């Protein structure tokens, strides 16, 4: 009996292992598995925000003859679901850097940079003629920050999720918001009467 059970278990495991299939997909393809926030939404938001910001007349003028220095604050997730907002800001930052119009300082690594500067200055292990000097970093002129919020409505057969992403460009010296943009997304999932 044990032998028969072991064989049946082995066949079941083998069959379940053969049933799954992994394939590469196009990362730019529209992802429609659930109404939750997904990769398509991230790409759509990043593209819309960067495109809107880059054609805004004051930003065009600001970047005409120089590359202003920005830092990106983490986007606040005000939804009820787990959303990797760092991925959103990373994608927006990458698109802006690759536009050739902006430079960025990375506030997420300040402590590690400080440790490296202290090591170069104080350890006695670094040739001082090649050591980076304290107080020589360039300060950010602008801060880019935003929010992701959602409203979820549902009944017995439908779930409707409305997402709103806002992004603002703040002049650190003056405190003036130089640009603001938003992108809205609505996703609806309907189930048939029989749950199929």
UniProtKB/TrEMBL annotation:
Name of a matching Pfam family: LpoB
Lineage: superkingdom: Bacteria
One GO cellular component term: periplasmic side of cell outer membrane
InterPro entries in the record: LpoB
Gene3D superfamilies noted in UniProt: ABC-type transport auxiliary lipoprotein component (3.40.50.10610)
Span of the signal peptide: 1-21
Protein name, UniProt field: Penicillin-binding protein activator LpoB
Organism: Alloalcanivorax xenomutans
Gene: lpoB
